[in-house]
Amino acid sequence: MISRPNKHCTVELQALPPRIGQVRRIVSAQLRYWHLDPLIDPAALGVTELLTNVHQHAEPDKRCTVEIDLVLDQLTVSVRDHDPRLPRVGSADPASTHGRGLALVAAVSASWGVQERHDGGKVVWFTLPVPGTAAVPPVRADSAAIAIGEPALVIPSLQETALQEPVLPEPAFDESLVAVHPTPLRGRAPVRSAVPG
């Protein structure tokens, strides 16, 4: 079997709304360059959600680094910031406009997690399987864990525990995971991202 060569891209930024849109376009362009067009939408959504979390919650500053790595048959997208506080999956009120970011990341990715860093910050990451390649070994049904560096932080996998179905070859969005109920758009403008770009 001929495997894909490892590929890597890094972007450093201040997680401010105009920059988040720019990074989303950079990630999309890089995946298009790597001929990974089917991964553009889930990767762009996931990186936007993680950067929005940095923008809204990170202290003392909004500096962060986005990395995308293609290793064998898996794409990993990670966001590293300087805030030691770990993110939590919230249970958002159906009318709320906040609190669904990590649930969205869990819904569109094969796995995700958080790793504390020695410098006091953290890395939040998610993975996407590369279409048309051999399947990545499945993640344990009860959790997703990080096995690099410090002791692993185990985070329940929303997608697998809520759905109890095998991982699909392409990420799927399940609205029940984020308590969003679609309403007809008749007479209303479509919803747009609050982040420019």
Topology:
Layout (H helix, E strand, L loop, with lengths): L6 E8 L2 H17 L6 H18 L5 E9 L2 E8 L19 H8 L2 E6 L5 E8 L28 H6 L34
Antiparallel strand pairs: 1-2, 2-3, 3-5, 4-5
Helix pairs in contact: 1-2, 2-3
Task: Write structural notes for this entry.
With 197 residues, this protein is an alpha+beta fold. Helix content is 25%, strand content 20%. It contains four helices and five strands. It has helices spanning 17-33, 40-57, 101-108, 158-163, and strands spanning 7-14, 63-71, 74-81, 111-116, 122-129. A five-stranded antiparallel sheet has the order 1-2-3-5-4, covered by helices on one side. A hairpin with a 5-residue loop joins strand 4 and strand 5 (122-129). Helix 1 (17-33) packs antiparallel against helix 2 and helix 2 (40-57) runs antiparallel to helix 3 (101-108). The longest helix is centred in the first third of the chain and has 18 residues, at 40-57. The protein is globular, with a radius of gyration of 17 Å. The model is unreliable at 136-192 (pLDDT under 50).
Main β sheet profile: 5 strands, antiparallel
Helix content: 10-25%
Q: What is the strand arrangement across the widest sheet? A: 1-2-3-5-4
Instruction: Write down the overall geometry.
Output: globular
Total number of β-strand segments?
Answer: 5
Q: What is the mean pLDDT? A: 73
Q: How many helices?
A: 4
Class based on secondary structure composition and strand pairing? alpha+beta
> How many whole angstroms does the radius of gyration measure?
17 Å
- Strand content range: 15-25%
End-to-end distance, in Å? 39 Å
> What letter string, H or E per element, gives the SSE order?
EHHEEHEEH
Low-confidence segments, ≥5 residues, pLDDT <50? 136-192
